[in-house]
Amino acid sequence: MSLVGEFVAEMMASAIRMGIPILLAALGAIFSERSGVINIGLEGMMMFGAFFGALGSYLGGPVLGLALAIAGGTALAFVHAMGSVTFRVNQIVSGVALNILAYGCVRFSSITIFKMATTSPHVAKLASIDVPSLSRIPVLRPLFGGVSPMVPLAVCLALASYWLIQRTVFGLRLRAVGENPLAADTVGVPVPPLRYVGVLLSGALAGLAGAYLSIEHTGMYVEGMTQGKGYIALAATIFGDWSPLRASAVAMLFGFAESLSFRVVEGGTIPYQFIKMIPYAMTLAVLAGVVGRSRPPASSGVPYEREGE
Fold first, then answer.
1. Which range (9-13, 59-63, 186-190, 246-250) has the least confidence?
2. Domain contains 296
3. Residue percentage of the chain with pLDDT more than 70
4. How far is CA 245 from CA 39, 51, 165, in A?
């Protein structure tokens, strides 16, 4: 029984580790889409976060890495907000363009700074923490021992996001500009600034998700390490019905699928190419089964233009 318990605990711990970057990016997508802006550029913002997180950790430690990652993701989000909100360009095209731009910028920067196109040197990680008492129980050690500080941080951010969106005046106004910007504008709610805030928050959280990958997950930047997690985060947002808590639970489900794929690959009985498809096949299955029944914010993806402008 103890062996089964240890295996379950190890799978749960692995699912949490794999699900954290999806969770953080999904929270960002919720802020953006609740404000009425679709953010396909999450993947590029995660790339920026991963690279600048590794760069900051390499230069001055993991705390600096997290700060630079958040700044990098926010900077790219500002470009998306400027195009989507101010210039009212097609939001899907803007997001895809940012993903391409991010890939080129990160590759060029890696060659310039690290003298390598695809990897960085190993960087310092945050000091892991043990949960008192629980970490001393052998069967629970994988869950509560040697935990990255970003795991409880992500949980706190999910709870804070739910409170901010559902229980505050800011959240009410953010949801209003995503559902009916004309009505919100009529009663004096500033639509463009709130949409800017929603997109910038999405960039900050996506940058933090990228930093988790490079600083905590691998201890270095590796080209392509996001592996489509920005798109998976969008699927988690849709499956979670644009709710921070539900999207967080779905992110853990995707994390479990990725963890399971690693476990099966270790077994060696099935070609690993098929196993690595599990998270992406699951994403397609979720989208195929949920998209038709989900109801996004009514004005998501629709540029807002005041009369007379």
1. 9-13
2. no
3. 90
4. 19, 28, 11
Q: Write out the residue range of the structural domain in which residue 116 sits.
A: 2-290
How many domains in the chain? 1
Of residues 127 and 77, more confidently modeled: 77
Is 94 among the domain residues?
yes
**Rounded to a whole number, what is the largest CA-CA distance in the chain?**
71
Tens of pLDDT along 213-224?
999 999 999 999
Considering the domain boundaries, does residue 253 fall inside one? Answer: yes
- In this prediction the pTM is 0.94
Task: Name the residue with tokens 């580790």.
Answer: 17
* Residue 186, domain CATH: 1.10.3470
Position 265 confidence tier, pLDDT thresholds 50, 70, 90: low
Give a yes or no: residue 271 inside a domain: yes
